[in-house]
Amino acid sequence: MPLDRLTFLGLRNLDSLDMRPSAGINLIFGANGSGKTSVLEGVHLLGMGRSFRTQQVKHAIGHDSDALVLHGRLSGSPPLPLGVRRQRASSELEMRLGGERVARVAQLAEALPLQLINPDAFRLLEGSPASRREFLDWGVFHVKHDFFAVWKGFRRALKHRNALLRHDRIDLQSIRVWEHELVQWSERLDALREAYVERFLPVFEETLAGLLSLPGLSLKYSRGWDRSRALAEVLEQGRDSDSQMGFTQQGPQRADLRIRLERRPAVEVLSRGQQKLVVSAMKLAQGRLLEALTGRTCIYLIDDLPAELDIEHRQAFCRWLERMQCQVFITSVEREALAGLWQPETAVAMFHVKQGRLMDHGQYDFTTE
Ligand SMILES: Nc1ncnc2c1ncn2[C@@H]1O[C@H](COP(=O)(O)OP(=O)(O)OP(=O)(O)O)[C@@H](O)[C@H]1O
Ligand SMILES: [Mg+2]
């Protein structure tokens, strides 16, 4: 479901913003520092309960404001309103969905599946496995209803085992109980992740092929413990070493997606532009798979699309966005950098941000340029 209305108050430098985005492509252009990324940040906060620019939401509160109040409305009958509010004086992020207070960010995330592609996107390849696990779990979460319960059960069992490992003397009876529990949840979590990757791979390969030619690129799921051994055995035999380290060294908390070109880690071989395209293909593929499996589309936030991509690759990227028929918010400093990228039949809604004020420029027909 696309967002058909956004109202933001107290977000960074943005004046009170009232935006009526189109259900398709929304182009947001404006000078450096005008507030484009802040608009995407507002949508991200609505769907994820956190920013992609700062660990602390309070930094996104406008310098002259006491609170950040963001509302969005998902179109549909009836429409679904959602909102978040963060006051400077409080550390709590208040969240609302359908007029009711909600306690968990997962409830917002479920209603508003988002994908962000920004100039930091290459970090998905370069950064720690945690970011790739988060990517993977986003996919599983949105297509498997039991994922969240399984994940919570797993986290709880892991926390208990880790706490027991840190005791001076390990209580064998207790730790065995939690290890048993941990194994049950871990196996379920692993099965969900593995099944997801199996569905994801062909979609990813097809999406990537539409963006660039990279024969030899492979993506493999690594579950976090030795494939040839049962987790129960790994935990039992690793107990002393885990106790010395103070945490559980193997298990789903160490899962990863290994992305390689031939035999080398892709990040060591690919150019920055190629990395951005590989990550874009991963994120586009997740949206395509979400739609194929659930009939729901996700919303794409694309910050600074032209950065690092030549015209040919920008076009290939835009072809996918058009084919997917999902809602997209794209920013660019230069309006012209995004001209000539779209098929004549694609409707593109234009918005100009100038010193924190967003102005609706209506539909734009790039073909006349
Ligand atoms: N908490 C805040 N309160 C008020 N203004 C802020 C706050 N945080 C950042 N800013 C300012 O908000 C402005 C908008 O930043 P934003 O990153 O959204 O711009 P942008 O249009 O994406 O720029 P660029 O093209 O350089 O990426 C900047 O001038 C920044 O200094
Ligand atoms: Mg920006």
Automatic annotation (TrEMBL):
<dbReference type="InterPro" id="IPR001238">
    <property type="entry name" value="DNA-binding_RecF"/>
</dbReference>
<keyword id="KW-0235">DNA replication</keyword>
<dbReference type="GO" id="GO:0009432">
    <property type="term" value="P:SOS response"/>
</dbReference>
<dbReference type="InterPro" id="IPR018078">
    <property type="entry name" value="DNA-binding_RecF_CS"/>
</dbReference>
<dbReference type="InterPro" id="IPR003395">
    <property type="entry name" value="RecF/RecN/SMC_N"/>
</dbReference>
<dbReference type="GO" id="GO:0005524">
    <property type="term" value="F:ATP binding"/>
</dbReference>
<keyword id="KW-0067">ATP-binding</keyword>
<dbReference type="GO" id="GO:0006260">
    <property type="term" value="P:DNA replication"/>
</dbReference>
<feature type="binding site">
    <location>
        <begin position="30"/>
        <end position="37"/>
    </location>
    <ligand>
        <name>ATP</name>
    </ligand>
</feature>
<comment type="similarity">
    <text>Belongs to the RecF family.</text>
</comment>
<keyword id="KW-0963">Cytoplasm</keyword>
<dbReference type="Pfam" id="PF02463">
    <property type="entry name" value="SMC_N"/>
</dbReference>
<keyword id="KW-0234">DNA repair</keyword>
<dbReference type="GO" id="GO:0005737">
    <property type="term" value="C:cytoplasm"/>
</dbReference>
<keyword id="KW-0227">DNA damage</keyword>
<keyword id="KW-0238">DNA-binding</keyword>
<keyword id="KW-0547">Nucleotide-binding</keyword>
<dbReference type="GO" id="GO:0006302">
    <property type="term" value="P:double-strand break repair"/>
</dbReference>
<dbReference type="InterPro" id="IPR042174">
    <property type="entry name" value="RecF_2"/>
</dbReference>
<dbReference type="GO" id="GO:0000731">
    <property type="term" value="P:DNA synthesis involved in DNA repair"/>
</dbReference>
<keyword id="KW-0742">SOS response</keyword>
<comment type="function">
    <text>The RecF protein is involved in DNA metabolism; it is required for DNA replication and normal SOS inducibility. RecF binds preferentially to single-stranded, linear DNA. It also seems to bind ATP.</text>
</comment>
<feature type="domain" description="RecF/RecN/SMC N-terminal">
    <location>
        <begin position="3"/>
        <end position="356"/>
    </location>
</feature>
<dbReference type="GO" id="GO:0003697">
    <property type="term" value="F:single-stranded DNA binding"/>
</dbReference>
<protein>
    <recommendedName>
        <fullName>DNA replication and repair protein RecF</fullName>
    </recommendedName>
</protein>
<dbReference type="InterPro" id="IPR027417">
    <property type="entry name" value="P-loop_NTPase"/>
</dbReference>
